[in-house]
Amino acid sequence: MSTFMGTALGGYSLYYQDGTNFDLVAGARLWSADNRFEFHGGALDGTSASDGDTWVDPVIGAKFKADVGNGIYLAGWGLVGGFGAGSKSMWDVMGGAGYQFNEKTSMFIGYRAVHDNYSHDGFVNKLTQQGPMLGFTYKFSVQ
């Protein structure tokens, strides 16, 4: 099974002050899933089957980031979507902490869970993926 998930969001900051921001966001999430089965050996040797689909979900939610001092920050988001336009429902929650090494470089560790409930023409993608995450950021500018 292979899955691609890409999200584009625009937001509005309800609060942006003293190293803390709280934003409302809206946008779209593109999903593409491909399931492939292959049998090797036995009575089904050489038999294969595949199924997949691509769809777009509208998405709304909120995200936050709060500096807590000494380069440490907390961040997270909560998103919901689908609403029957693509998936019947989907949600995505993430939370964790980061460290800002300098103006351009930071590191983040957290936990994320994503759920999707999609079906169309016999293809079903009903899953929850969750686990720890680790990320690094480098900001650059072109002048």
Structural class: mainly beta
Q: Output the radius of gyration.
A: 19 Å
The pLDDT mean sits at 94
User: What ranges have pLDDT less than 50 throughout 5 or more consecutive residues?
Assistant: none
Total strand count, please?
7
Order of helices and strands: EEEEEEE
Report helical residue fraction: under 10%
Strand coverage percent: over 45%
Order of neighbouring strands in the sheet with most strands = 1-2-3-4-5-6-7
Number of helices: 0
Give the overall silhouette: elongated
Which sheet architecture does the biggest sheet show? 7 strands, antiparallel
Kindly, what is the distance between the CA atoms of the first and last residues, rounded to a whole number of angstroms? 43 Å
- The oligomeric status of these chains comes to single chain
For the structure shown, list the relevant keywords.
143 residues, mainly beta, seven-stranded antiparallel β-sheet, 0% helix
What layout of secondary structure does this protein have?
Layout: E1 2-17, E2 20-38, E3 48-69, E4 72-81, E5 89-100, E6 105-120, E7 123-138
Task: Give an account of the 3D structure.
The protein has 143 residues and is mainly β. The chain contains no helices and 7 strands. A hairpin with a 2-residue loop joins β1 (2-17) and β2.
Task: Describe the structure concisely.
The chain is mostly beta strands and 143 residues long. It is built from no helices and 7 strands.
